[in-house]
């Protein structure tokens, strides 16, 4: 019987986690709103079971998590509805405790740190948000850590930088992958030469599967960094080079985002977080390496090769 639940499983990280669990022969439960979507994605895996939930209904949350030992929370919201993050987190924690879930891991972001005060950002870096999205993510984290302090459930947080990899269509790099395959022009958000890092999504899945088995993981927040410091331009140029094409891209800076944001709510919300492209948060994951040992970190060139192959 499955003892691990992937809440919000339909995204790219949920798929990567499912692949890691399946490779280890571990049964798992995928939880989401759409049964048809979950069946289309996970229905062919005999190790997967499917549960539908309505995160606004306490009884629905409890039923979806019944019998689960460890829940991994990856629920996304529209980029213009970040106020939902703490609201959904509170309901999920209450439902998980009611269902008898023993452990809950939140997959978080760098947003709660705000602007970096050091070149490398460790878990002890102050969480001093200056954006609405950062405040909402901090509220979400605070709920998770406070739940652990009650003694009714063990919780932890794993913070990740930007993703890339097969199926990651919300990455800053996805347009470059698409353009490199089709010969079209990529639409990128700049500046392009600021130091940046990316996590290859299968690496994140493999690390999470290891983290939830460690007794020392719970009650803490952890960082997972990328395979090294790079830049969007370096990555985009490598993507085009591996596809055998000359790089072609249009770059939108903050001013252009403001203009296009008048007509597109997603683009409008990117303006607030644009600081991450000028004062980037580069994660220090020394503490995670001390806990788990060597971490899976696919070199960027190989991750690009595998992503291009998957398109």
CATH topology of the domain at 4-164 and 198-227 and 282-297: Rossmann fold
Q: Any idea what the CATH architecture of the domain at 4-164 and 198-227 and 282-297 is?
A: 3-Layer(aba) Sandwich
**Strand arrangement across the biggest beta sheet:** 3-2-1-4-5-6-10
| SSE pattern, N- to C-terminal | EHEHEHEHEHEEHEEHEHEHHHH
Short summary:
With 311 residues, the chain is an alpha/beta fold. It has twelve helices and eleven strands.
Overview of this protein structure:
With 311 residues, the chain is of the alpha/beta class. Helix content is 40%, strand content 15%. It has helices at 12-23, 35-42, 58-65, 84-99, 132-149, 174-182, 201-211, 232-242, 254-261, 265-270, 286-292, 300-310, and strands at residues 4-7, 28-32, 48-52, 70-73, 103-108, 154-159, 162-164, 186-189, 198-200, 221-223, 249-252. The strands form three sheets. The protein has a seven-stranded parallel β-sheet with strand order 3-2-1-4-5-6-10, sandwiched between helices. Strands 7-9 form a two-stranded parallel ribbon. β1 (4-7), α1 and β2 (28-32) form a beta-alpha-beta unit. α1 packs across α7, α3 crosses α4 and α6 (174-182) runs parallel beside α8. It is globular. The mean pLDDT is 95.
């Amino acid at each position: 019987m499955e003892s691990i639940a992937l809440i919000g499983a339909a995204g790219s990280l949920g798929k990567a986690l499912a692949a890691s669990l399946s490779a280890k022969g571990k049964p798992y439960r995928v939880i989401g709103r759409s049964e048809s979507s979950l069946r289309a994605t996970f229905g062919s895996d005999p190790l997967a079971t499917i549960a539908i939930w309505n995160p606004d209904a306490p009884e629905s949350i409890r039923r979806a998590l019944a019998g689960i030992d460890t829940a991994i929370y990856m629920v996304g919201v529209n980029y213009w509805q970040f106020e939902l993050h703490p609201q959904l987190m509170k309901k999920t924690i209450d439902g998980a405790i009611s269902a008898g879930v023993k452990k809950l891991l939140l997959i978080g972001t760098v947003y709660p740190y705000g602007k970096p005060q050091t070149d490398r950002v460790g878990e002890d870096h102050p969480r001093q948000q200056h954006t609405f999205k950062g405040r909402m993510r901090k509220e979400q984290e605070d709920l998770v850590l406070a739940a652990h302090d009650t003694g009714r459930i063990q919780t932890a947080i794993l913070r990740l930088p930007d993703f890339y990899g097969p199926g990651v269509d919300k990455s800053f790099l996805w347009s470059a992958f698409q353009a490199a395959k089709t010969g079209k022009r990529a639409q990128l958000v700049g500046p392009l030469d600021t130091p940046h890092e990316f996590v290859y999504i299968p690496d994140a899945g493999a690390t999470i599967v290891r983290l939830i088995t460690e007794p020392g993981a719970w009650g803490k927040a952890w960082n997972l960094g990328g395979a090294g410091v790079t830049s969007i331009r370096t990555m985009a140029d490598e993507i085009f080079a591996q596809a055998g094409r000359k790089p072609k891209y249009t770059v939108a800076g903050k001013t252009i985002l403001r203009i296009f944001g008048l007509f597109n709510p997603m683009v409008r919300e990117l303006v607030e977080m644009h600081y991450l492209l000028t004062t980037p948060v580069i994660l220090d994951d020394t503490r995670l390496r001390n806990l788990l040992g060597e971490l899976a970190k696919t070199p960027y060139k190989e991750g690009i090769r595998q992503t291009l192959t998957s398109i």
